[in-house]
From TrEMBL:
The modification N6-carboxylysine is found at K134. Pfam families: PTE. Zn(2+) 1 binds at H25, H27, K134, D253. Keywords: Hydrolase, Metal-binding. Signal peptide: none annotated. Binds 2 divalent metal cations per subunit. GO terms for molecular function: hydrolase activity; zinc ion binding. The lineage of its organism: Bacteria, Bacillati, Actinomycetota, Actinomycetes, Kitasatosporales. This is Phosphotriesterase. Its cofactor is a divalent metal cation.
Amino acid sequence: MSPAALVRTVLGDVLPEDLGVCDAHDHLFFASPLLPGQELCDAAAARAELAAFRARGGGSVVQWTPYGLGRRVADLPAVSRDTGVHVVAATGLHQAAHYAPRLLEEVRGRLADVFVSELTTGIGPTGVRAGLVKVAGGFHALDAHARRTMAAAAEAHHATGAPIAVHLELGTGALDVLDLLCGEAGVPPHRVILGHLNRSPDLVVQREAAASGAYLAFDGPSRAHHGTDWRMPDALRALADAGFGDRLLLGGDTTTAAARSVDGGPGMPYLLRRVRPRLELALGKELVDRILTENAGRAFAVPWRS
């Protein structure tokens, strides 16, 4: 009997239950002109970070680094194989500010084709297939770039069944994103993953987004200007009590070299070293285990096709 769904990793498709404990939003490689000198571009450091995550019980990492931002896709299979951690790669496009105008012009008219190709044929000459489409909104709004990119992501979803992961700028704009992707573009809400909900602790918006059927990712420890870590357990508890415990995801979102644990930052292990036990006190171990395993497996699975 064929499986109903599989998760597409850089080493091939696996069953959702084989992901183990999943960091649902992170970066092994990432480079943006907005973060000069903080590029994640060292394969040895990426391998060490994954090994440290594995040592804490981690089983899989979903890399949300999209097209044109230093994904280093050719390095991902070896890093995954060497550490025994499943890695899921992304296609998609970030906010326009992360790209040179020339690059955007090169892909603007063929975004959907690029996304579908990277989901089905592979990313460049590597043959590694992406497992999700990553796009981004703006601060409390969706500009023309976001709308164009999300429309292309919706096309790619309809062609492949792949989930769409959305960077919400400072955690805002969730309902606008759902209106566009699920209302205008017809993407089923359970195929949408909304990132950074912890950065805007609006319980009303979070509950409405969860009620739509979308997944809500709480990802990354607080930055100095966010200060929302202390609110996250209460937000997750409120959502779980409202019946949305199966809509929640957790991630680390390491985007700079200084944030890596091997360079003195919290890094990927922080999710399991500090966030997990703190949430277990608020939510109970059983629910946190399900968030890190079963929820992630469902969120990133794609329909099996012969």
